[in-house]
Amino acid sequence: MAITAADVNKLRQQTGSGMMDCKNALVEADGDFEAAIDLLRKKGQKIAAKRGENEAKEGVIIAQASEDGKTGVVLTLNCETDFVAKNDAFRGFVQSLVDIASKNMPASIDDLKALPFDDKLSVDEKITYQIGMVGEKLDLSNFATMSADKVVAYNHPGNQLATLVALNSGSDAAEDAGKQVAMQVAAMNPIALDKNGVDARTIEREIEIGKELAIQEGKPAEMADKISLGRLNKFFQDNTLLSQQFVRDNKVTVEQFLGSTEKGLTVTGFKRFSLS
């Protein structure tokens, strides 16, 4: 049967595929729209299988807090090239995944992939379908949720870096402070909330390095332990969020900044996703 431009455009509107892909699918399906959609989906599966071993180091990261500020999600969808990552349609697709995650708050990546994208495809199936559209490997590589009295999201320009910060107060002052701390997390990349969140292996490594440096500097062996503990405290100050110098005022720590904003205000958790 004859395939009209209107038919091609209709399929394109339904699927988001390119004009030639839609035309070829309709021709092969003899004008059957459902069969044409299946063909486009199979194309995505074929490309996914073919490009499965490729590296997908580029991508888009988006963090988003709910309207009431009680929950937040952040996810990374990787692709192969910067060209795709900067495409508005691709970023729009990532935003649609964020919206689904924000609405449903799944517990894991697998749970997110199992959710319906629309009335025909799951999120996982839609990602495979998108592989056919863009011709690159796509990988939903990172996903996290947060719940608190206040959750604040920060997206660094370019969508290569995003953060979520959870606070123990839902006040307007807490939200404003949370935005500043979310930018702090983006800039300073803390490894934990405070020293209690640093794993034992990291602590042991820092103590050992501190001892070795002290000995190399000619310090007496009996002083090495004390010197290494001092350096460990400096490590905590530089690398744990609440102990870090506040980037907007290095005369105070993040903990002190929060306390001066609202009595008892503190961060209860954070997430930081980055492509680099």
CATH architecture of the domain at 58-147: 2-Layer Sandwich
Oligomeric state of the chains in view: single chain
Rg over CA atoms, rounded to whole Å, is 24 Å
CATH topology of the domain at 58-147: Tetrahydropterin Synthase, Chain A
Q: Taking all residues together, what is the mean pLDDT?
A: 91
Q: Write down how many β-strands occur, each being a DSSP E stretch of 2 or more residues.
A: 8
Description:
With about 280 residues, the protein is an alpha+beta fold. Among the domains are: about 5-50, Orthogonal Bundle (Helicase, Ruva Protein, domain 3); about 60-145, Tetrahydropterin Synthase, Chain A. The chain is built from 11 helices and 8 strands. It has helices at about 5-15, 20-30, 35-50, 80-85, 90-105, 110-115, 125-135, 170-190, 200-215, 220-240, 255-260, and strands at about 60-65, 70-80, 140-145, 150-155, 160-165, 245, 250-255, 265-275. A 3-stranded antiparallel beta sheet has the order 1-2-3. Strands 4-5-8 form a 3-stranded antiparallel beta sheet, with helices on one face. β6 (about 245) and β7 form a beta hairpin. α2 (about 20-30) crosses α3 (about 35-50), α8 packs antiparallel against α11 and α9 (about 200-215) packs across α10. The longest helix is centred in the last third of the chain and has 19 residues, at about 220-240. The radius of gyration is 24 Å and the shape is elongated. The mean pLDDT is about 90.
